[in-house]
Design brief:
The complex is a heterotrimer of chains A (about 240), B (about 350) and C (about 600).
Chain A lengths: L5 E10 L2 E11 L4 E5 L6 H9 L5 E6 L2 E2 L5 H7 L1 E4 L11 H8 L9 H11 L1 H5 L10 H13 L5 E5 L7 H16 L3 E5 L3 H7 L2 E6 L2 E7 H5 L2 H8 L1 H5 L1
Parallel strand pairs in A: 3-8, 3-9, 6-7, 7-8
Antiparallel strand pairs in A: 1-2, 1-4, 4-5, 9-10
Chain B lengths: L2 H32 L6 H16 L6 H19 L6 H25 L6 H24 L7 H23 L13 E4 L2 E4 H23 L1 H11 L1 H6 L4 H23 L9 H15 L5 H21 L4 H7 L1 H11 L8
Helix pairs in contact in B: 1-7, 1-8, 1-10, 1-11, 1-12, 2-5, 2-6, 2-10, 2-11, 3-4, 3-5, 4-5, 5-10, 7-8, 11-12, 12-13
Chain C lengths: L1 H16 L8 H26 L7 H19 L3 H23 L6 H19 L9 E2 L5 E2 L2 E2 L3 H23 L2 H8 L4 H6 L4 H27 L1 E2 L6 H14 L4 H26 L6 H15 L5 H8 L29 E12 L2 E12 L3 E5 L6 H8 L7 E6 L2 E2 L5 H4 L4 E3 L12 H8 L8 H5 L4 H17 L15 H14 L4 E5 L7 H16 L3 E5 L3 H7 L2 E6 L2 E6 L1 H6 L1 H8 L4
Parallel strand pairs in C: 7-12, 7-13, 10-11, 11-12
Antiparallel strand pairs in C: 1-4, 2-3, 5-6, 5-8, 8-9, 13-14
Helix pairs in contact in C: 2-6, 2-9, 2-10, 2-11, 3-4, 3-9, 4-9, 7-9, 7-16, 10-11, 10-12, 16-18, 16-19, 18-19
The chains are: A alpha/beta (about 240), B mainly alpha (about 350), C alpha/beta (about 600).
Amino acid sequence: MSAPLLSLERLSVSYGRVDAVREVSLSVPEGAIVAILGPNGAGKTTLLSAVMGILPCRGLATFRGVPLAGRPVEQRVADGMSLVPEKRELFVSMTVEDNLRLGGFRRRSTAGFAESLDAMWALFPRLAERRMQLAGTLSGGERQMLAMARSLMSTPRLLMLDEPSLGLAPLIVKEVFRVIAELRRTGVSILLVEQNARAALDLADHAYVLENGAAVLEGPGEALRRDERVIATYLGIRAVAS
Amino acid sequence: MDLSIFVILFQDGVVSAAIYALLALAMVLVFTVTRVIFVPIGEFVSFGALSLAALELGRAPGTVWLLLLFGLASGIVTLWSERRVLTARIWLRTLAETVVLPVAVAALVLLLAPHRPSQWLQVLLALAVTVPLGLFLYGAVYRPLAQASVLVLLIVSVALHIALVGLGLIFFGAEGSRTAPLSQVSLTLGDLSLSGQALAVLVVTAVLIAGLYLFFGRTLIGKALQATAVNRLGAQLVGISPLFSGRFAFGLAALIGTAGGILISPLTTIYYDTGFIIGLKGFVAAIIGGLVSYPVAAGAALLVGIIESFASFFASELKEVIVFMIIVPILFVRSRRSLVLEDEE
Amino acid sequence: MRSTQVAALLAFALAALLPMLPGVPAYWLTLGSLIGLSAMVALGIVVLTGVAGVVSFGQAMFVGFGAYTTAILTTRYGWPPLATLPVAVLLTGLLAWGIGAITLRLKGHYLPVATIAWNISFFYLTGGLDAFGRFDGISGIPPITIAGLSFAGGASFYLLTLAILALMVVATANLLDSRAGRAIRALRGGVLAAESFGIDTGRARILAFVYAAVLAAISGWLYAHFQRAINPTPFSVTVSIDYLLMAVAGGVGQIGGALVGAGLVTLVRDKLQDVLPALLGTAGNFESIVFGFALILILQFAPEGLWPHLRRWVGRRPEAPAGSPVAAAPSPPPAGAPAGAPAPLLSVVHLRKTFGGLVAVDDLTFRVGAGEIVGLIGPNGAGKSTSFNLITGMLPANGGSIGFRGEELRGWPARRIAPLGLARTFQHVKLVDGMSVLDNVAIGAHLHGRAGPVAGALRLDRAEEARLFARARAALARVGLPGAGDTVAGELPLGQQRLVEIARALALEPALLLLDEPAAGLRHAEKQALAGLLRAVRASGVGVLLVEHDMDFVMELTDRLVVMNFGAELAQGRPAEIQANPAVVEAYLGSAA
């Protein structure tokens, strides 16, 4: 088997004296969808932020075999990583189209720029309808779509999605997961942080469960879907049962 | 006061207002992109005017030494902050930017200055010295403080201003200078007579503002700066480096500040420390715009210019006091409106 | 603290001996006086910038206010110098209060910016008006005489300066160690936390501003009688920056830093004024170049200044943190509402909050009774934090009502809610880092005292302080940290910091305790201890409402749960019922895509 696209070894992240992520090791193979599950406050968002270079961390992280330490966020974007953050972080006072164009900022003068833009309009027809609207006027679902499209404009090898279904109505959640499934076919690898465990496990090739900053469970998506411990992690049923 | 005096005062006010508006726009730009309140923009006004004045006399302006100095400092800071990922490419690029470029500019200026080139070439040379100086100031002073709070950045700005004024005294001396007008034409429309320089100020200001408008509205780089101002993290996530935006903003501000100095120096005598007061008036306008709104800042600049012009007629000794006191009622109104608690984290 | 006091006493005693030494040049005494005068201003900056976090570029203006007040009154109206001091102090205090009232409520950078404008205006005003002698200034100011004693001589003025500085140091230390001082220090822990305990943060900031201005004015008053002639130059913005540099160089958070910084900057300036013009061949204030860059370098490399480093060389380290939390101590008698009262303490009815088009809280209704623990849970983004902020007055609600002990809280700010007996903790711990644990907890007792700043500075507040600290100590003992009082709060591990936050809340003696994710980041044993503590609090009749993600913790501890999803209530009931509720299961695990 070839080396994984992203590999983390004993990665830890601290806020002051608090360890938000404790020695997590995981890997994302080329072309795979890997899910990170866990209850609120388990350290999932922190983990993604550290991988993207927004937060400092300890341990070894490599992307395409190259250590990530010392590389600033924008360099990681150029390397082929992209993060769709939990809060979307859109340019709210700018149009949908400008948001997308800025997503491809680093490849603004390449030949493929216009094609990527067209590909995004095709992948997200809702956005095409609203291309001249300000991003701040979009609905929650549309914002999530725009955030994903903006990320994809940089033609990433690894797309990291932080809670893409957060706060969205069930119908729109389905739409988001449809797009994720579609992206798999384009060959982009995906690291998915999700609360919606069932939908994520339906899609993921492999999944990790985080609790209190540490990886407590891992396995193929299929297997975890039937694991009672996943449910217990979320609802604390163990405590009552014991 | 008869009508003709009113017209003259009004006209003077509008001309100064144009300069203040430029400076206010530059301050809003730098603040929204980098959170730096760019107090030293006033030094660019002085340095621009005094550099041009030196060139007119066939002398190399002292600012070339500043350029070499800050180039070096910026180079050292760059190498230090990238010490963990240093490659030959970074070495070469840093060397080219912070040593070779300033040396080349300095050589050019030293070579050309004694020959008294044409006025336009003089203006270009003055800009060639000060614009990179803006980049180097960012690289040497502000870059290491990218994570600092607005207040720390403000203290640094004021400290930098004080240091630059001192350096200005060393390099330009205590005497003031006035440069030749950019245009000798004069327009007369009934009572209203407009000097060529006043016209030049208004035209150049209009062109610069239009240029900025197009730059931000039409180019992706302009939009990238805007994006950094709207959402810093979002900008980083799409690969716009804060360093890039910061340098660009400072370069533009240096350009605008210098242009302001060059425009105003035929109208009034500029000393090594005059720029600060001029910059502060732009700043008053920027503050009225909350440091974020371009149109309000420009409108406020007009107000500042006209109030100043009339104040200098009626109470010339207190004109500065009157201008700076404009912000009191403005801040008062703002404080009444924004009673919402803000957590400064 | 004791050794610091001894060291300070020693330093002042040594400084006072300087004039007695044989062969001391008169110029040394002049320099010493100037250092003392600068140190007074820097001392104010320590309180203003270092403690309250407010930056001013206009302190030289306040010095000028003191100086011009006395210059005008003594030379033109023949007042004796001593009589002008109260006028100078009062006038400057009023002016600072006015400026502060206008700008201190605004976001961080408006005040510093405004102070630049004011300082420049002051410069032009004094330089442009005959009343101030224009740029020539005012001369012929008499020396200070007190009871026939003249302080015109170098040695006598030096000693007077030193004595006044010593008084200021003591008063400043006292102030910071009083109820009003804690309110100022609390600003560092965040405005929200301070307001939640009834502290008027706007007033605390203005107090710091006025105090710093008054110290500056006294320095200016002395300066005028020392130089016997004044002009606008020493009161310009440039000099304001020098004062700021003194405080920052020394260490802006520390009283000692102001003294060290003032000494250092004054001495270096003196040397530079000799050396630089000779070096450069022209006259001018070139030291400002060195000072400007020095300030930049300090902020880049050692933002905390020299003082902490000096202390480290002397080898004094704060004590190590106290041990691990022990089980909750027996609780004191119920506070606030009588135990077991059937009426609900808090009743939230049809609460609604929208942000633009987004409905964050939609028709939420629930109650919390005395002696009951209620958990507010739900997936991320369900609206729990927003609900919490609505109840505590951090955010205004758009609709519905919040009843608490018979009052309708909707529209009330946090500061007004606290006195009713509602205390809270924060998701991200908001303690004042550099302050001792006990002082932090005493902030919770703020509303149980009434002593003002003057009483604090003069130490007239000791009886009340003793009461407040007894309360704080009791609260600290209750959360199981009786020995941690002297530890610096920021040095405790997170778990104990959360307990300190709870102690601070208990020091308010609340009827209702709101806890925002109290178990986040705690280890297993710490969670057990926390659960034990909360049970004890419940037993004392206090109602508890908590937002928490740790389900083990919530299910074990709470009496009832309110589950939110998409801003609305999804379910209410006992923990076991909630765990069996299919809608809740789906909300947490999601449905298959």
